[in-house]
Amino acid sequence: MKICVEIPEYDGNSINVIWENKSKYSVEVDGNQVVLRGNKEALVSLAKQMLYLANNDIQHGAHVHFNSFFTGNPEDENELIIEKTE
Description:
Elements: E1 25-30, E2 33-38, H1 40-55, E3 63-66, H2 68-71, E4 80-83
Antiparallel strand pairs: 1-2, 3-4
């Protein structure tokens, strides 16, 4: 299967947050396991976000916080942070 996606170019200012409409996900920590659950839109959004960070000239340490604003559930305790290294 070949999938083509459009990833925005980094403009040198703020990092784009990529989030599809109707996306829903949750993050659970269970001992030494992290479980990330999401519908199709959320999983595609997170994949695009990772591709955006990986394929643009963005400084190391740049990151995006996905918190209860994105999950749509204010009771979510766990926040997902995607960060670029090296």
